[in-house]
Amino acid sequence: MKPPTGETVRDYYEGGSGDETTLVENVRAWRAVRFRPRVLRDVGEVSTSTQLLGSRLSGPVLVAPTALHGLAHPDGEVATRRGTAQAGSLMILSTRSTVPLEQVAAAATGPWWFQIYAMRDRGLTLDLAARAAQAGARALVLTGDTPVVGVKRRRTPGLDVADLHLEHLRSQTGRDLSPSDVEQDPSVDLRFIGDLQKAVGLPVLVKGVLRGDDALACIDAGAAGVIVSNHGGRQLDRAIPTAWALPEVAAAVHGQVPVLVDGGLRAGLDVLAALALGAGGVLLGRPVLAALADGGAAGVERCLMDLHHELAHVMALAGASSPAEVGADLVRTIAR
């Protein structure tokens, strides 16, 4: 089989499941949010600085866990980590990394989290989590919306993602793993949140939450945070856009733990909308991959800093000098 072309890699990154309804609606939903800006507020100094789970960050825009950065740039996740740290932000490293997690951790200073799947080989899952903790990860992000993998219709000739994932895990663990070992375990339930936290000793956030009752169930099971996500439109197609799900989840959580959100955020106005709807931070996926492909670590740094500069500008226009001053009163309605 021929190696994948740039077009194939782009389709892999940009594609969604099913008819890609959710993929498209994620972006449109943020653009439908409307604001009620305040006037005559002191915005002579605007700061986007944010604190999440004990980490002080330059702003509320974080790097989402996305797979196989080595397809976008030769330095892969190492470049993403360096660019993220240079921007004063936080990267969530995917289990499906093309670089061993220890190398990514050592590539820069600054906080990072590790994303993990509950795989059929539970020992492998816990071993990866323990390695991440040993390497300095400050939290684990458990992906909860992938009991099975959504079917994508875009063709990606020459790119066998499952095989790449298996080969990388074999090389990083030194274990003779089978394809079934690294599949997600569809029988996993809420109890695994507590199991993971107790085994590793790190806070666990659950990613893939779209309902208020699910958010509360995750917190009751030990989650230290929830991430409103529909997997970037790559799992259940026609799942609601995250901009629609966020207010319900934020209201249910009511400040007990951080609520983050991803999916379709592309501009400072989108981030402002997310903060107003109850998010403590947002995760950026595809735009970071595009920036990585275009400019390596410097491209990632520029992408994050540009978005924080955009956010500061629109915060000033809305009459808010800090993320703490961005509340639900800034949003009147969401046109659907």
Model description:
With 336 residues, the chain is an alpha/beta fold. It has helices at residues 6-14, 21-31, 76-86, 101-106, 122-135, 161-173, 191-200, 212-220, 242-253, 268-276, 286-318; strands spanning 33-35, 50-52, 55-57, 61-63, 91-93, 112-116, 140-143, 204-209, 225-228, 259-262, 281-284, 331-334. It has an eight-stranded parallel β-sheet with strand order 4-11-10-9-8-7-6-5. Strands 1-12 form a two-stranded antiparallel ribbon. The chain has a two-stranded antiparallel ribbon with strand order 2-3. Strand 8 (204-209), helix 8 (212-220) and strand 9 form a beta-alpha-beta unit.
Question: How are the SSEs placed, and which strands pair?
Answer:
Elements: H1 6-14, H2 21-31, E1 33-35, E2 50-52, E3 55-57, E4 61-63, H3 76-86, E5 91-93, H4 101-106, E6 112-116, H5 122-135, E7 140-143, H6 161-173, H7 191-200, E8 204-209, H8 212-220, E9 225-228, H9 242-253, E10 259-262, H10 268-276, E11 281-284, H11 286-318, E12 331-334
Parallel strand pairs: 4-11, 5-6, 6-7, 7-8, 8-9, 9-10, 10-11
Antiparallel strand pairs: 1-12, 2-3
